[in-house]
Amino acid sequence: MDQENEEQDHSEKKLITMRDVAIAAGVSVSTVSRVLDERLPPSRSASAEKVRQVARELGYRRDYVASSLRRGGTGTIGVLVPRLTDAVTAMFFEEIARAAARRGYFAVVATCGDDPDQERESVEYLLDRRVDGLILSTCRLDDPLPQTLRERDIPHVLALRTDGISLSSVGDDELGGYLATRHLIDLGHKNIGLIGGPDFASNALNRRKGFEKAMREVNLQIQPQWCCSSDFNIHSGEDAGERILSTTPPPSAIFAVNDEIAIGVVAAAHHRGITIGQELSLVGYNDIPLVSRLPVALTSVRTPLEHIASNAVDMLISGEDRQRVRAVAPTLIPRKSTTPFKK
C-alpha cells in the first residue's frame, strides 16, 4: 500500500524534462541528452558535471518508456502532413516541433499531398531515416496505412484525423460543427448551407455531424441543394460556393468546414455581388491568422492546435493512453461575417 502511495505521489509531481535541465544548466537540450545517455562513455568535462549536478538537484529521472521508443536512438519524430502550403498543417507542424523539443526530441516533416501512394512512400522515407516514431495528420478513412503500421508494430499517433483505432490526438470536431451551426441558428438563420470537406477525412465528417445535430435540434430541414462535399482548399471552396449561391433562393448562411473553403466562398460571393455579413453570413473553421484580417473578418471555430500537438507527442512517447482518441474542445470566435438574419 505504501508503495502504491509513493507511486501516486510521484505521478502527481511535475515531470522534469531534459529541456528543464538544459535551461537550468545553461546548455542545449542535445548536450543534456548526450551527457545523460547511459549508452555513451561518461564525459568528465566541467559542463557535463554541471549537467549531472543540475539533473540531480531538479530530480530528473530518465524516461525509460520514452527511451524504449528509440529503435535507432536518433531522438527524432517523423511528422507527415498533407502539404505545408496549407496554413493549418504548417502551423500544426510548428506546434509538434515545439512539443517534441520540450521532450528532448527533434521533429522532421514530410508531405504527401493527401495521396495514399505518396503517403506510403513518405512513411518509408521517414522510417529509412530511423525516426523513433510517427505522427500522421494524413489519415484517410479509405486507406489501410494505419492498420499496416499497427501490424508492423511501428510507434505512431494519428493527429487532426483519426481512424478510431490507432492512438489519436484530435479536436472535438463534432462539437465544433455544432457550435458553428448553432451560432447561425441563434442569429435567426433557417436556410443554412454546408460545404463539408472531403468524404475521406474524419474531421470533415465529424464537423458535418455537428451541423446535422444542430439542425435536427431545432427541427430545421437540411436542403441537399445547399450542401456539398469539397476539398480542403480555396479553389474547391469557390467552386462549391458558386454552386450553392446559384440556387434559387440561395441560403442566408453557410458553414464551411475549414477557413480556406470559407475564403473560396468569399470569392464566389464577391463574383455574384453578394456582401458577406449583410446578405450572407459565413462561418469557417480553424481560425487561421488570415481570417481575422479579411475585409469582413470571418467568424471561425478555433482549433486548439497547441494542445492537440502536445497530446500527440505525449501519446507517442508513452505508447498508450486511457483514451484511445483524445479530443480537445474548440472555441467559436464570432466576427463580422455573421449577423442576425434580415427578412
Task: Give structural notes.
The structure is a single chain. The chain has 343 residues and is of the alpha/beta class. It has 13 helices and twelve strands. The radius of gyration is 23 Å and the shape is elongated. It has helices at residues 2-12, 18-25, 29-36, 46-58, 64-69, 87-102, 116-128, 145-151, 173-186, 202-217, 234-245, 259-271, 305-318, and strands at 76-81, 106-111, 133-136, 156-159, 168-171, 192-195, 227-228, 253-256, 281-286, 299-302, 325-328, 331-333.
Present the secondary structure layout.
Layout: H1 2-12, H2 18-25, H3 29-36, H4 46-58, H5 64-69, E1 76-81, H6 87-102, E2 106-111, H7 116-128, E3 133-136, H8 145-151, E4 156-159, E5 168-171, H9 173-186, E6 192-195, H10 202-217, E7 227-228, H11 234-245, E8 253-256, H12 259-271, E9 281-286, E10 299-302, H13 305-318, E11 325-328, E12 331-333
Helix pairs in contact: 2-3, 2-4, 6-13, 9-10, 11-12
Which keywords apply here?
343 residues; alpha/beta; 6-stranded parallel sheet; 6-stranded mixed sheet; 13 helices; disordered N terminus
- How is the largest sheet built, in terms of strand order? 2-1-3-4-5-11
**Envelope shape:** elongated
Class by helix and strand content? alpha/beta
Strand percentage: 5-15%
The main sheet comes to:
6 strands, parallel
Percent helix, as a range, is 40-55%
Number of helices: 13
What's the pLDDT, averaged over the residues? 89
Regions with pLDDT < 50 over 5+ consecutive residues?
Answer: 1-13
Radius of gyration based on Cα positions: 23 Å
Give the beta-strand count.
12
What string gives the helices and strands in order?
Answer: HHHHHEHEHEHEEHEHEHEHEEHEE
Distance between termini? Answer: 69 Å
